[in-house]
């Protein structure tokens, strides 16, 4: 293909097969397309406003990756939302109106999360969105929710350092998962050397920042802490596991605190097994590995490795049994597991229903105000309450992996833990609190200076 | 702490003359220990395990081995039963057989309990009849380095006649001696020499902690330096092995592309999906074997390789005949069309198999690792290295020795002349593409062992495959091999220094700089027809 004959191809013309489009025709097509694109989103809204009446279904957005590296974790959350919505519809819906799920697939693509969130809020006009897993996906959609005043229920354990008016965090903050796990290892397993291994994005980076500060506060020397980051989907763990082994053979009990996310966990655990790293030598406590991630693996070599959550499928309560039975019936597969983020969606959805019934409307501002103080039963035999900092109270459970992929609870906090959304171990945030009740209405209120410093979302 | 305590108590009790212990005391200790074990509380369980091991109960070894294997059951009244391999129950306290009992469940352990159990079993097995158990026990004592274990070790060394176990026991004694402030200088010097001979990371750490007396400390420092040198060499060898295994993975993924891109000049963005098809073929083969002939699982990969070749090869021929044939000489259109095809293939697999990862099992002969001095060789990676070279040589043989290969090379060098000689060039094109695709399928079989089998499997390897082919020299199989191994080794040597993320970035930057200097790769094909 020679480029020196510019005269042959005019920039304004283009040959599309046999059709010859001149500049005018292309321009005309462009204007028509733009008009259509502008008009199309407005059309359903116009139609809907015209037909607005009671009995019209309430839309609920489900924003979870159904493909890509996070599909292993998020697909089951989409399914549990469908089940919860179906169950609520069987009970007569909410405010006499049926619920309608709107499911989109952001495909583990973080910018696509923001686009899909905008679509759910602006085009589909959903009353609330249940979604996201990775913190980077949440950070990506946060500006959209704050701009369009939507409501997001975020069901996954995360790194804290955030308190937005438009988000309800039904997952664990670091003091409801990471810190108790570290305390358990220090006390029960006598761990003196620490490997903090994570995937390279905001959640592991922030959590490790908090944990490093916490460990140093507890007197751990910097030489006894090894921090390591890998990209999403990392499949070659030979070198890293070998480094962990040599770090762990210094004579002091060593443990790995793993914030590795997604399907990179599978080759990581396989490599641990292949290189003979047993839980009694170097235990690994994971924050993002639950029953769902273990479902596709042979867990015999992993017996004894730990996970810290606020719920396990093996918790023996009547509420949990009923939930698991209903889940198996809905999904038509008695082998499907339940896990902590599913319980978080269960709690968050029931809280949303209660708040809507309390407020009498699905309007975001009313629901957001009505949410504070709502208390619903959780699946481990207690109650979860939504605090003014938009986080919920949770028990902390530490479980060891069994050879059937389930967890054996080895430690449990005696009561419920209130979330600390701003970490007291990081200098910039140790004076901040979040309180969305009037008159404070602030996500990042500095108690020392008495000023409100943002933190996301102002009452509009 | 509990490990030391357990072994110490154990050795003390084993060595103490039986007449010192009253029979009544022994029974009481045993029933206390068993009650603690059956209590359901992890702390009590841990203490019960150590106490039972120290009690000298002749049934202790049976009970603790059963607990280790998950065969210790507890009834609703907290009585303990040992379940034999055939399911028969024995009462743990008395050793007598028991009938069927309802409401039994396994005694569950936590990690601290497991450690106490291993220490207890280690101590109990120090005098066992089986040399393998004695060796394991000696290693357990070496790890704890407890001074109080010395008398027990002396006794064990005196009656040991197996040389390997004797050496392990002597090393354990050396480790304990070095922690003993009261040991003599000469003893310590001998201990330092023994640990230097052992030469592994743990021995080095023990020697690093020796500070007095001065002569022993100096000898220890020298030993540490020498061990460090050896360990550094082993470290390099280990990194080279990891680099070799990563390189072989890259080679497998890229070699099919070397045929289609290198030999035919077709940019095939669906190459990763052909690899993925091979991986899914393995999954299907394993599923069929699992449901129909579970005994064949060990051979599942051998069955999957030719099947994956056929499946991916057929897909390749279909792609070539259906799509690529119309786009020869138009590389950008081929790129776009094959990119679209890759999305179609991904969604097709997603619709058939679902978006979740599929579990592909590893046969037993491929699990585990072997220790070669300071080098650890995992069998799965070793198999992949051997497999990749076999594939490389087989492909070279096909190209060089078979009539088909001859025709392929002729068509690549001069299409018009080959056609004039009577070679049916369209058919050869299809077969060449099919061959490259089939090799990609075989690569998928190997990759299913080390990576997740999901519809996105291909996406992780497409960029690396192109990198390898371009770096090695387009059209040259040897170039691809050298390129793959070089990239693998460089990546693995950079990883411990720079971390996984930065290592990849550095490799990419170096590659870009290299391509600037030598745009046609390391070993480009020469000749008028190729350079046209």
**β-sheet strand percentage of chain B:** under 5%
Rg from Cα of chain A: 25 Å
- Find the CATH superfamily of the largest domain in chain A: Response regulator
**DSSP strand count of chain A:** 19
List the uncertain runs of chain A.
1-18, 47-53, 455-460
Could you report the average pLDDT of chain B, rounded to the nearest whole number? 84
Number of domains of chain A: 2
Multimeric organization: heterodimer
Total count of helical runs of at least 4 residues of chain A: 12
Cross-sheet strand order for the largest sheet of chain A: 9-8-10-11-12-15-16
Report on the architecture of this protein:
The complex is a heterodimer of chains A (460) and B (532). Chain A has helices at residues 23-50, 71-90, 110-123, 135-148, 178-188, 202-217, 238-247, 265-274, 291-294, 318-331, 340-359, 364-371, and strands at 14-16, 19-21, 58-63, 99-104, 128-131, 152-154, 167-169, 193-199, 225-230, 254-259, 284-286, 306-309, 375-377, 383-385, 397-401, 407-412, 432-435, 442-446, 451-452. Chain A is α/β, with parallel strands linked by helices and 460 residues long. Chain A contains 12 helices and 19 strands. Helix content of chain A is 37%, strand content 18%. Mean pLDDT of chain A is 87; it is low at 1-18, 47-53 and 455-460. A 7-stranded mixed beta sheet of chain A has the order 9-8-10-11-12-15-16, with helices on both faces. Among the domains of chain B are: 2-127, no CATH class; 265-475, no CATH class. Chain B contains 22 helices and 7 strands. Chain B has helices at 2-15, 23-37, 42-54, 60-69, 111-124, 131-144, 150-159, 163-179, 185-198, 201-208, 214-263, 271-292, 300-322, 331-353, 379-401, 403-413, 415-420, 425-450, 457-472, 477-498, 500-517, 528-531; strands at 72-74, 80-83, 89-91, 97-98, 105-106, 369-372, 375-378. In chain B, strand 2 (80-83) and strand 3 form a beta hairpin. In chain B, helix 4 crosses helix 5. Chain B is elongated. The model of chain B is unreliable at 16-21 (pLDDT under 50). At the A-B interface, helix 2, strand 9, helix 7 and helix 8 of A face helix 5, helix 10, helix 11, helix 20 and helix 21 of B.
């Amino acid at each position: 293909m020679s480029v020196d004959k510019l005269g042959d191809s005019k920039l304004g013309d283009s040959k599309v097969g046999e059709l010859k489009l001149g500049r005018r025709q292309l321009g005309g097509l462009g204007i028509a397309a733009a008009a259509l694109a502008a008009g199309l989103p407005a059309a359903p809204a116009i139609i809907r406003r015209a037909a607005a009446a009671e009995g019209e279904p309430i839309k609920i957005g489900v924003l979870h990756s159904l493909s890509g590296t996070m599909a292993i974790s998020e697909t089951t959350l989409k399914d549990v939302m469908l089940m919860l919505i179906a169950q609520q519809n069987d009970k007569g819906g909410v405010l006499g109106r049926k619920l309608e799920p709107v499911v989109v697939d952001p495909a583990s693509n973080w910018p696509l999360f923001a686009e899909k969130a905008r679509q759910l809020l602006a085009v589909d006009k959903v009353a609330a969105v249940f979604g996201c897993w990775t913190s980077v996906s949440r950070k990506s959609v946060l500006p959209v929710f704050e701009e369009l005043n939507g409501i997001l229920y975020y069901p996954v354990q995360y790194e804290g350092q955030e308190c937005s008016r438009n988000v309800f965090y039904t997952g664990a903050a670091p003091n409801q998962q990471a810190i108790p796990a570290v305390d358990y290892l220090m006390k029960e397993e006598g761990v003196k050397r620490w490997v903090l291994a994570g995937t390279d994005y905001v959640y592991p980076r922030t959590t490790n920042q908090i944990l490093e500060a916490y460990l140093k506060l507890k007197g751990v020397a910097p030489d006894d802490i090894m921090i390591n980051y890998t990209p999403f989907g990392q499949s070659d763990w030979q070198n890293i596991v070998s480094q962990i082994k040599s770090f762990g053979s210094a004579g002091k009990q060593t443990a790995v605190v793993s914030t590795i996310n997604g399907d990179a966990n599978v080759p990581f655990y396989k490599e641990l097994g292949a290189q003979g790293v047993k839980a009694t030598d170097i235990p690994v406590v994971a924050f993002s590995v639950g029953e769902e991630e273990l479902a596709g693996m042979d867990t015999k070599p992993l017996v004894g490795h730990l996970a810290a959550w606020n719920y396990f499928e093996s918790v023996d309560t009547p509420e949990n049994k009923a939930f698991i039975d209903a889940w198996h019936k809905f999904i038509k597969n008695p082998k499907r597991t339940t896990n902590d983020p599913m319980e978080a969606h269960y709690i968050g959805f029931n809280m949303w229903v209660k708040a809507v019934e309390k407020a009498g409307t699905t309007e975001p501002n009313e629901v957001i105000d009505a949410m504070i103080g709502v208390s619903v039963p959780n699946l481990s035999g207690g109650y979860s309450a939504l605090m003014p900092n938009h986080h919920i109270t949770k028990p902390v459970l530490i479980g060891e992996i069994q050879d059937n992929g389930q967890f054996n609870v080895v430690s449990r906090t005696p009561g419920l833990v209130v979330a600390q959304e701003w970490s007291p171990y990081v200098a910039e945030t140790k004076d901040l609190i979040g309180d969305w009740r009037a008159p404070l209405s602030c996500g990042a209120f500095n108690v020392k200076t008495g000023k409100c410093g943002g933190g996301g979302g102002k009452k509009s | 702490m509990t490990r030391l305590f357990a072994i110490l108590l154990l050795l003390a009790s084993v060595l103490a003359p039986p007449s010192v212990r009253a029979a009544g005391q022994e029974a009481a200790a045993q029933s206390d220990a068993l009650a603690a074990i059956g209590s359901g509380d992890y702390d009590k369980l841990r203490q019960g395990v150590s106490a039972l091991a120290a009690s000298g109960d002749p049934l202790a070894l049976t009970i603790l081995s059963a607990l280790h294997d998950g065969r210790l059951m507890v009834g609703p009244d907290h009585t303990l039963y040992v379940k034999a391999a055939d399911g028969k129950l024995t009462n743990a306290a008395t050793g007598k057989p028991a009938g069927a009992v309802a409401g039994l469940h396994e005694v569950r352990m936590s990690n601290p309990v497991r450690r106490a159990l291993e220490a207890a079993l280690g101590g109990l097995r120090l005098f066992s009849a089986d040399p393998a158990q004695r060796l394991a026990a000696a290693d357990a004592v070496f790890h704890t380095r407890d001074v109080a274990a010395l008398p027990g070790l002396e006794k064990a060394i005196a009656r040991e006649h197996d040389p390997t176990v004797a050496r392990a026991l002597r090393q354990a004694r050396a480790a304990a001696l070095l922690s003993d402030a009261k040991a003599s200088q000469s003893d310590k010097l001998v201990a330092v020499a023994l640990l230097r001979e052992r030469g592994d990371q743990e021995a080095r750490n023990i020697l690093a902690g020796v500070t007095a007396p001065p002569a022993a400390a100096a000898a220890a420092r020298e030993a540490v330096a020498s061990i460090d040198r050896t360990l550094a060499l082993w470290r390099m060898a280990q990194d080279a092995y990891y680099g070799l295994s990563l390189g072989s993975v890259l080679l497998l993924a890229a070699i099919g592309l070397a045929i289609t891109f290198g030999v035919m000049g077709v940019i095939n963005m669906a190459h990763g999906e052909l690899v993925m098809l091979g991986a899914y073929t393995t999954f299907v083969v394993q599923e069929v074997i699992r449901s129909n002939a579970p005994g064949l699982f060990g051979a599942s990969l051998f069955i999957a390789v030719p099947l994956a070749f056929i499946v991916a090869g057929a897909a390749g021929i279909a792609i070539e005949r259906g799509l690529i044939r119309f786009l020869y000489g138009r590389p950008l259109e081929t790129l776009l069309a094959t990119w679209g095809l890759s999305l179609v293939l991904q969604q097709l697999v997603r619709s058939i198999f679902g978006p979740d990862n599929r579990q592909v099992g590893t046969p037993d002969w491929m699990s585990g690792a072997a220790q070669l001095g300071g080098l650890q060789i995992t069998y799965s990676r070793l198999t992949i290295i051997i497999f990749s070279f076999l594939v490389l040589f087989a492909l070279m043989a096909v190209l060089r020795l078979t009539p088909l290969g001859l025709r392929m090379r002729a068509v690549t060098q001069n299409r018009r002349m080959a056609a004039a000689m009577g070679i049916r060039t369209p058919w050869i094109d299809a077969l060449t593409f099919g061959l490259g695709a089939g090799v990609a399928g075989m690569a998928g079989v190997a990759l299913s062992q080390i990576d997740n089998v999901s519809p996105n499997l291909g996406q992780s390897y497409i960029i690396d495959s192109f990198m390898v082919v371009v770096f090695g020299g387009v059209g040259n199989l040897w170039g691809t091999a050298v390129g793959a191994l070089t990239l693998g080794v460089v990546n693995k040597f950079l990883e411990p220094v720079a971390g996984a993320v930065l290592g990849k970035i550095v490799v990419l930057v170096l590659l870009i700089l290299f391509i600037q200097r030598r745009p046609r790769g390391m070993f480009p094909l020469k000749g008028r027809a190729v350079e046209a």
